[in-house]
Amino acid sequence: MNTRLAAVAALSLSLAACASLQPPVDAPNWRRDAPDPVGRLKLDRAVEDRLLALDPESVSAEDVRDTLSKVPAPRVILLHGGVYPVHLAMTSFAHFMIGMGYPAEQIRHPSDGNWSHSPYEASERVAGMIAWSYEHDGLRPMMVGHSQGGMQVVKVLHDLAGTFAKELPVWNPVTDSAERRTAIVDPYTRAERPVIGTQVSFASAVGAGGPSGVLPNQWAVIGRLREVPDTAVQFNGYFLGIDWFTMSLAELADRYHNASGKVLVRNVVLPAGYLHVSVPVSHHLPDNPEYKRYVDAYRATTEKPDESQMPGTYSDNIYYAADNWASIKKHWVLEAQRLARARRSRG
Fold first, then answer.
1. How would you classify the pairing of strands 200-206 and 192-194?
2. Contacts of residue 178, Cβ cutoff 8 Å, sequence gap at least 6
3. Model pLDDT, residue 248
4. Residue 91: left if φ>0, alpha if ψ -120 to 50, beta else—which one?
5. What is the CATH number of the domain that holds 268?
6. Residues 6 or more apart from 155 whose CB is under 8 A from it?
7. Confidence at residue 29, expressed as pLDDT on a 0 to 100 scale
8. Please, which residues have CB within 8 angstroms of residue 88's CB and are 6 or more apart in sequence?
9. Is 235:258 a contact under the CB 8 Å cutoff?
10. Alpha helix (H) ranges present in 101-237?
């Protein structure tokens, strides 16, 4: 497909996604009938005690198996790249997470069962789904994006920050439709609050930028691509040492930043041998005992790990997978602890 046809296809997909936002469906009695994830939380006391004792920065395989597997998990929204069939790379990452112990039902889309979202989908839908999931689960969701999907992650964060619009509709992922409301009931305060301002607990983007920024679905965010708004608790930006697709060198690329200092932003440079198209491919790692031991033992630091100590080859993408997984485990713990403490405080 030549460049002109690709741009036309992208524009058509973008317009179709925007059109699918309408018409919203009625949501009668949503205030009265709002879910109460804090009140409905039922945990064995021993499991809850173990959960509250966990160190989010150092979560072992045993912690995942014996404790986290028995507590609620935040929804993880995966966003794949824009060129077919690169969505299979994110499907691979979904299976990596499942192999490491994350519940599949919190990754799959509740309506269509897909593992990841297209970057041509209206970003407002993803933002509205994040608010709906927070209201229903009491856990702030996470996002992981690849290539154009990484750009979409940043765009969604700006949607939630109110950068583009003052209101956003709630998006129900079960019916896969917008609801006729722009607010949710906060699961902790039980007060009504707007979708705007809802946070994700963790977000990451790899390979975001380059020529795909000229496509219509990315115009709104291209000038803000490295600006991380306060709608994330933590953001990991991954750069390939040499990214031929985005025509960039990691050492020369602009870094992600947060103006207020409220967001933990990590800029991580991956080895030069990692390939843009396949960097999320990691489904095989949990099945290899040596690889799994490395991923389980990995702890995120400000220092770049010694590549000579990493098992496998560049095509195994173990550094990208391990670093993401460390942050996903961390915020799984933090969100579940927050929910458990709220339940205890209610008595």
1. unpaired
2. 21, 22, 23, 24, 25, 125, 128, 169, 170, 171, 172
3. 62
4. alpha
5. 3.40.50.1820
6. 123, 218, 220, 221
7. 85
8. none
9. yes
10. 123-137, 148-161, 219-222
Q: How far is CA 104 from CA 71, 75, 99, in A?
A: 14, 10, 10
If one counts every other C-beta atom within 10 angstroms of the C-beta of residue 273, the result is: 13
- Amino acid of residue 202: F
- Residue with structure tokens 């590549």? 307
Asked if omega into 85 is within 30° of 0 (cis), the reply is yes
State pLDDT tens for residues 254-289. Answer: 899 999 999 999 999 998 889 989 999 999 999 999
Indicate the burial class of 45 (C-beta count within 10 angstroms; 0-12, 13-18, 19 or more).
exposed
How many domains does one find in the chain? 1
Q: How far is CA 234 from the centre of its chain?
A: 10
SS3 category, 308:
helix
Distance CA 237, CA 232 (A): 12
What is the secondary structure of 5-28 as a DSSP string? HHHHHHHHHHHHHHHTT-SPBP-T
Which three-class secondary structure state does DSSP give residue 209?
coil
Tokens standing for residue 340:
């458990």
Q: Is 305 helix (H, G, I), strand (E, B) or coil?
A: coil
Name the token pair of 148.
Answer: 């154009």
Give residue 77's domain range. Answer: 3-346
Q: Give the rounded distance of the alpha carbon of 297 from its chain centre.
A: 22
Q: What is residue 323's three-state secondary structure?
A: helix
User: Are the beta carbons of 170 and 128 closer than 8 angstroms?
Assistant: yes
Q: Model pTM?
A: 0.90
